[in-house]
């Protein structure tokens, strides 16, 4: 049974990260995309991947900050109107254009939402019947949009995270309510010519405890990862997608440690993508991955070496009239199989940020998401030899945003 009045949990699920740091105002990461962004040649040993936080499209901070419980159904109604205004079907068109332009073999998606409702709603009266009528299925909408662009992608792995239902006022005379239910997923998409096997989808043992306001725990917020063996031409990698907890450094660290341990003995090269909610280069969790011999593809790229690669955050209503990105938390990390020397674990890399330029907005002026995405094309060499210890990021144990 999904939680019924998990307002704090909904904020955590909907928000990609909770950082309200300094803004970087400008025209985004200044390198412009063009047909040759992948580099002068297309090596058959190369693989192109994307990470993209989709964003549910609303802000629930006012719900979290509500002083009076009786205000909650009205605040939910206001948040729901923002969700409608941020128009996921229109944003899906922008995502499709990004994918058409960059042509990734594999895509890691976070915050894929399934929005359901129940009318009339029973939650405010203590009912326990879950909402089942679908309002928006983000995955279905996106896949249909990609198909409309002539793109051949399929969902090959999916993990369900939080599942939360809330009451929403829909009328005052007479008084009427609807239930709105949000279920959050992370998904891997694969291009039609990519062979997929060994699919794994797992929730982390570490979850966020949401207090009940009376000294106890109302419920837990799960997160997880998806992973597949993906073969492109003659190259096979373990492709992993995750969205780590933004609200607690301890929980995020535990989730990262669990993922690292799960992948420790993997013999295939690993490409790990996702919204890791740990800022590069100073984040504690970010450096945990570096200390475990993962390499940051953005730092290894041959193009745009001085670009910051910022990916977060636009405003929740997606109506910013300037670029509002100030940190890099959407990452593509690579670790070659055990026995590969870290310094040569990856060949040539070309990488760009997408969804960060004013022209990336939809016709009505919406950013595709509150995050930008990252696309990287890289060569994964077949290597042997002993692992050479590196002191990448050790000692930089500053808190995450």
Protein traits:
401 residues; alpha+beta; 7-stranded mixed β-sheet; 6-stranded mixed β-sheet; 17 strands; 32% strand; globular; disordered N terminus; disordered C terminus
Folded structure, characterized:
This protein has helices at 7-14, 61-64, 72-85, 88-102, 138-148, 249-263, 284-291, 297-300; strands spanning 25-26, 46-53, 106-118, 133-137, 153-172, 175-191, 195-203, 208-211, 217-221, 224-232, 235-243, 270-275, 295-296, 323-324, 330-335, 349-354, 373-379. The chain is an alpha+beta fold. The chain contains eight helices and 17 strands.
Average pLDDT number: 82
- DSSP E strands, number: 17
Low-confidence stretches: 1-36, 383-401
- Which structural class do you get from the secondary structure elements? alpha+beta
Q: Report the portion of residues in β strands.
A: 25-35%
Short summary:
The protein has 401 residues and is α+β, with helices and mostly antiparallel strands.
List the helices and strands and how they pair.
Layout: H1 7-14, E1 25-26, E2 46-53, H2 61-64, H3 72-85, H4 88-102, E3 106-118, E4 133-137, H5 138-148, E5 153-172, E6 175-191, E7 195-203, E8 208-211, E9 217-221, E10 224-232, E11 235-243, H6 249-263, E12 270-275, H7 284-291, E13 295-296, H8 297-300, E14 323-324, E15 330-335, E16 349-354, E17 373-379
Parallel strand pairs: 2-3, 11-12
Antiparallel strand pairs: 1-14, 2-17, 3-4, 3-6, 5-6, 7-10, 8-9, 10-11, 12-15, 13-15, 16-17
């Amino acid at each position: 049974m999904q939680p019924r009045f998990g307002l704090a949990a909904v904020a955590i699920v909907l928000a990609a990260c909770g950082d309200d740091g300094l803004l970087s105002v400008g025209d985004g990461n200044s390198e412009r995309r063009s047909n040759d962004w992948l580099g002068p040649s297309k090596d058959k040993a190369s693989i192109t991947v994307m990470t993209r936080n989709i964003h549910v499209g609303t802000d629930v901070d006012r719900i979290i900050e509500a002083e009076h419980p009786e205000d909650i159904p009205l605040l939910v109604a206001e948040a729901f109107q923002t969700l409608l205004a941020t128009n996921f079907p229109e944003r899906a068109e922008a995502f499709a254009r990004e994918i058409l332009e960059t042509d990734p073999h594999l895509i890691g998606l976070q915050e894929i939402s399934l929005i359901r409702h129940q009318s009339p709603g029973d939650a405010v009266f203590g009912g326990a019947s879950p909402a089942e009528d679908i309002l928006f299925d983000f995955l279905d909408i996106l896949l249909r949009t990609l198909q409309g662009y002539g793109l051949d992608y399929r969902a090959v792995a999916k993990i369900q995270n939080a599942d939360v239902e809330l009451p929403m006022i829909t009328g005052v005379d007479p008084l009427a309510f609807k239930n709105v239910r949000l279920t959050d997923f992370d998904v891997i998409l694969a291009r039609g010519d990519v062979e997929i096997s060994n699919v794994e989808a797992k929730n982390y043992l570490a979850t966020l405890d949401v207090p009940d306001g009376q000294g106890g725990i109302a419920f837990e917020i799960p997160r997880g990862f998806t992973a597949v063996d993906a073969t492109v031409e003659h190259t096979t990698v373990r492709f992993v997608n995750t969205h780590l907890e933004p609200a607690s450094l301890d929980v995020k660290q535990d989730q990262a440690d669990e993922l690292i341990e799960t992948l420790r003995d993997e013999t295939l090269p690993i490409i790990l993508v996702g919204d890791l909610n740990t800022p590069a280069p100073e984040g504690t969790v970010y450096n945990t991955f570096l200390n475990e011999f993962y390499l940051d593809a953005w730092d290894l790229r041959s193009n745009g070496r001085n670009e910051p690669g910022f990916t977060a955050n636009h405003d929740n209503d997606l109506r910013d009239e300037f670029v509002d990105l100030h940190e890099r938390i959407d990452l593509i990390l690579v670790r070659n199989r055990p026995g590969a020397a870290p310094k040569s674990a990856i060949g040539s890399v070309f990488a760009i940020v997408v969804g960060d330029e004013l022209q990336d907005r939809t016709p009505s002026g919406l950013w595709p998401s509150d995050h930008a995405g990252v696309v990287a094309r890289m060569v994964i060499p077949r290597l042997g030899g002993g692992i050479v210890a590196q002191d990448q990021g050790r000692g930089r144990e500053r808190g995450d945003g």
